[in-house]
């Protein structure tokens, strides 16, 4: 299958950097978090395990990636020590003996807000469909390396609608961590299909316009959290905050 949504298999074999050092703890720790375009869940799982969110949900349009994300959650859980130290047991152990079952979240000594219970995945085209967690909303939304794919598939209007939906599901003062791909990278991606090529021809909104579009929707730019990645993967990670009605900016 051609990955016209950026739904690459083995993405984290090519892109080793999970960018965790870019994410400030205060937007994740003890927060309700959504990761849109979670792929096979490596970033989402690492956040669930190491940043202590109350709950984090990864959503992806590709069902096979969501299945892989659940498997990754189990593998990471199986490798942790009984008191939660990551990568304590070698991967070979789970290969030989099978993964450790996840006990129910209400079992003695377990807390539903602690890894692995604080982590779930759903399959959805999140631009069009809601997931159950959307109803209560989020403190933080991550949209990492997903804007290009939504933009190429759904055009300027679709991308703006995506930004609006993020604004809608965020609580006042909530944060958006956005990692947009550069315009230069669109040219190669559009070759995947005739539809993407046709959409590419009529795009007017450039990634350099995203800060203005987000401002119009009701976000304030907070700070650039830095750039990560090598070569074509080199991208900025930006932090936005949902303006509250009493904001003076
Ligand atoms: C290039 S990968 C980025 C993965 C991850 N966010 C990261 O940066 O490490 C983009 C992911 O977004 C997903 N995606 C694209 N459009 C989507 C949509 N409308 N709803 C949910 N997921 C989507 C793709 O399936 C793919 O797994």
From TrEMBL:
The keyword Ribosomal protein does not apply. Belongs to the methyltransferase superfamily. InterPro entries: Bin3-like, Bin3_C, BIN3_SAM-bd_dom, SAM-dependent_MTases_sf. PANTHER family: 7SK SNRNA METHYLPHOSPHATE CAPPING ENZYME, BICOID-INTERACTING PROTEIN RELATED. This is RNA methyltransferase. Keywords: Methyltransferase, S-adenosyl-L-methionine, Transferase. It comes from Macrolepiota fuliginosa MF-IS2. Its EC number is 2.1.1.-. Transmembrane segments: none annotated. Pfam families: Bin3. The keyword Methyltransferase applies. GO terms for biological process: methylation; snRNA modification. Residues 17-245 form the Bin3-type SAM domain. GO terms for molecular function: O-methyltransferase activity; RNA methyltransferase activity; snRNA binding.
């Amino acid at each position: 299958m051609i990955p016209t949504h950026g739904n690459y298999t083995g993405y984290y074999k090519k892109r080793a950097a999970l960018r965790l050092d870019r994410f400030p703890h205060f937007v994740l720790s003890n927060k309700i978090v959504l990761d849109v375009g979670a792929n096979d869940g490596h970033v989402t799982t690492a956040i669930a395990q190491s940043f202590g969110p109350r709950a984090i949900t990864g959503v992806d349009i590709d069902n096979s990636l969501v299945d892989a994300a659940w498997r990754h959650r189990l593998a990471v859980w199986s490798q942790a020590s009984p008191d939660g130290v990551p990568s304590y047991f070698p991967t070979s152990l789970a290969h030989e003996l099978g993964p450790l079952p996840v006990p129910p979240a209400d079992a003695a000594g377990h807390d539903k807000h602690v890894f692995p219970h604080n982590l779930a995945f759903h399959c959805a085209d999140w631009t069009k469909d809601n997931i159950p967690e959307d109803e209560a909303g989020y403190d933080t939304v991550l949209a990492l390396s997903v804007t290009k794919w939504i933009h190429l598939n759904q055009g300027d209007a679709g991308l703006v609608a995506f930004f609006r939906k993020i604004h809608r599901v965020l609580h006042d003062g909530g944060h958006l961590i956005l990692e947009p791909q550069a315009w230069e990278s669109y040219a190669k991606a559009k070759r995947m299909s005739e539809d993407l090529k046709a959409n590419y021809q009529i795009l007017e909104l450039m990634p350099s316009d995203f800060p203005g579009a987000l401002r119009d929707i009701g976000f304030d730019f907070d700070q650039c959290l830095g750039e990560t990645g090598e070569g074509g993967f080199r991208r900025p990670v930006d932090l936005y905050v949902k303006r509250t009605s009493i904001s003076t900016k």
